[in-house]
Structure formats: C-alpha cells, structure tokens
Amino acid sequence: MSITCTEYLRYGWQIVIGSRIQGEIQISEERKGDVSAYLGSHRELKILDLGNGALRPQYTILAAEGHNIFGVDLVNRPTANWLGAAYKIARSTMRWKLGLSPIERMERLICGDVTHLPFPTASFDLVTSVAAFEHFLQVPEVVSEVLRVLKPGGVVYARIHLFTSPSGGHNIRVAEVPLRHVPKGVEPWDHLRKRRLPLDVPLNEWRQDQYLKEFGKHFDLLKHYCAMREGEELLTPDLEAELSTYRRDELTCGAYVIVGRKPL
Q1: From residue 237, how far is each of 48, 186, 196, 244, 252 by CA, in Å?
Q2: d(CA 60, CA 15)
Q3: CATH code of 229's domain
Q4: What is the pLDDT of residues 157-215, one digit of tens each?
Q5: Dihedral, CA atoms, 247, 251, 253, 255, nearest 10 degrees?
Q6: Looking at the 3D structure of the chain, how many domains does it have?
Q7: What are the beta bridge partners of residue 130?
Q8: Residue closest to 57 by CA, chosen among 85, 26, 79, 84
Q9: What predicted TM-score, i.e. pTM, was given to this entire model?
Q10: How many CA atoms lie within 13 A of 122 on its CB side?
Q11: Where does the chain show beta strands of DSSP type E?
Q12: Nearest to residue 168, comparing CAs of 140, 143, 193?
C-alpha cells in the first residue's frame, strides 16, 4: 500500500491547527530542562541539529531563541516537486504560527552525510537530535562523529523514536502522536509482527539497550528516560505474550531521551 495524498493532507492539517507545533515546543522545553544544568540557560550556544528533517521544527525554534544553529541532513537540498512545495508551505505555516518571518536562512542548512559531518573537530556546545537516530543505518559511525564535533564538556541530546513502540514502523497511517488509536485494518505493532504495512522510510530497528550501550562507550551518560508513552491501552495480555521477546516498557515507549556529555 502506498501513501495517499489524503494521508499527507491529514499530516499537514495537524500543522495548520497547531497540534504538531505545540508538541515541538514541548520537546524544546524538555530539552532545555535536560541540558541547562550543564550548558547554562542564558548564553548563546553553538548548536548542531543532527538530521533536521524536511520540516526543521527544532532548527527553527532554536534559531528563534538566538542560538548559533546549524542543521545537517540529506534533505537539505532544493526539491522541485509537489512534495518539496508542500513542505515549503508547511514550514512557512509553522514559522507563522511561531511568530517568525516566513523567510528561512538557508545558508546554515547543510546537505551532508551524518556519518561524515562537514565540521571541524570540537565545533559545538550542543548536538541535538529529535526523531532522527532511528533513521541512521550506521549508528556507531554517527555517534563517533557527534563525539568528534562536540567541544570537551559539550552535550548531546538525542530523542529517539524507538522502533519497538506501536508507531515505531513510522507508517504515516499511524502518525498520531502519541498513538492512541489504530486505524481500521491495521494491527497494533504490525511492524514487529506480520509487517503487512510497508516501512516507508529507512529504519535501523535498534532497541533501547543498543542505543544506551553505544552512547555509553563514548559519553558520560547524564540521564536517559522515556519521554513519551503510547499504546499501553493497546497492549493486551495476548499481544504481550506474542511479543514476549520485548519488554513492556520498550513496547510502550514512543520517545526515548539520552543525554550525554563529552569527557573533558
């Protein structure tokens, strides 16, 4: 089954009415609370938004706060098609909702490979990544590059959409955040079971413990926690038994946060 225009319109409508933007603002506030004790809360930071995405919400919010922000993603290139035009409208709507000029500064949005970051060593105070690490197919290489470009004492904030969550297959038909209702004809945790729906985007399928182990090799782990629960009401005893190779806490964690600091 392919993604329909109607499903993209539903996604766009969530931006227009503000539900998606409010969620991004909440993520931004959570990040501030997690990193301010280590980086301060009142100074301008040099920040890299890793895997900023076509919508660029966190990049936009951080720029609005006055930080020296750079974004890197393979999607940071001009696209002359209907999807590129749709994203441009969505970004303008988001900026308008945030009270910003609809005109973007493009020179700091770099089209680049996250396994070979185009920045000098020890360049950034903070590397932030929201809903991107699950798409990186070479996680160890990316983590090593994050370590390289951070200054000593710099912080990485990674908010990961876990593959094991009910929406972890990233199919746009189950794009409600957090997921509370599964559309008709879709089985909960389809991507961990029969996989009848396609995986529309690249996913590495890593689990929570794999991320923790990899980050722990390179960083002092400051905190890690589940930032958003979903699907608890969908996880019946029969389903939990079928998915017994997964822990209940990872099956119901839609967003997992890891905060680490580069050793001095």
Answers
A1: 43, 18, 22, 10, 14
A2: 14
A3: 3.40.50.150
A4: 999 999 999 999 987 565 677 888 887 888 999 999 999 888 888 999 999 999 999 99
A5: 120
A6: 1
A7: 159
A8: 26
A9: 0.87
A10: 5
A11: 46-50, 68-72, 109-110, 124-130, 150-160, 220-229, 253-261
A12: 193
**Two tokens, residue 194:** 């029969």
Q: Which domain holds residue 139?
A: 5-261
Tokens of 112: 């680049």
Q: Which helix (H) or strand (E) holds 24?
A: helix 19-39
Structure tokens that stand for 251 in this block? 């099956």
- Exposure pattern of 221-244 as b/e (b: 16+ CB <10 Å)? ebebebbbebbeebbeeebeeebe
Q: Cβ distance 174 to 183 under 8 Å?
A: yes
What would the DSSP string read from start to end of 234-262? G--HHHHHHTTTS-HHHHSEEEEEEEEE-
